[in-house]
Amino acid sequence: GAIATILLALVLMFAPTNKENKEERAAKRGRGAVAMVLYPLGVWVLFGVNNFGLKVVQTTLIAPQESAMFSAVIFAFAALFGFGALLIRDGGKLRVEPKSALGGVALGVANFFVTWGMLRGLAEVPASLFFPLYHTTIVALVAVLGTVAFRERLSAVQWAGVAVAAVGIVMFFV
Asked: What angle do CA 166, 167, 168 make, to 5 degrees?
């Protein structure tokens, strides 16, 4: 049961991201093949560490009404760290294109609300239900939005990954 679930989760993560054709895959055999396995596995492990950390913070460090302030402090430090890294990289002169700055702010605001929403959701729903639903929904939603917003064409394997995600979401409510 648990091993099959873990393997299915890895397949679900890999399927929507595997857009290479047969020739590209053949060219990447060897060290590229290792990267094709390690990348989804690394992402999966790091998401697990992040999920664990968020649940620990939510249960031991902050009250539900403090989740917005906690998220704001985290993102303020992330912004300071990012600007510091840019200063170091650019030799003390901050050179940021307005388009990049606007994109960074938009991404930061979106991530703030995602983190705040996750903390609020974890306060209401058990983590064993919340995280699978959250991540499965994200995989399916991003794949579908990519086809609509950016006219991406998904392969049969990628659509199968989206279908597995949808079935998983439905199974939680049956």
From this structure: 90
Two structure tokens written together for 141: 């939603």
Question: Could you write out the DSSP letters of every residue in 101-147?
Answer: HHHHHHHHHHHHHHHHHHHHHHHHS-HHHHHHHHHHHHHHHHHHHHH
CB atoms within 10 A of CB 78: 13
The sign of the CA dihedral 25, 145, 109, 116 is negative
- What type of residue sits at position 71? S
pTM over 0.70: no
Distance CA 62, CA 169 (A): 29
| Chain segment 98-112, per-residue pLDDT in tens | 898 898 889 889 889
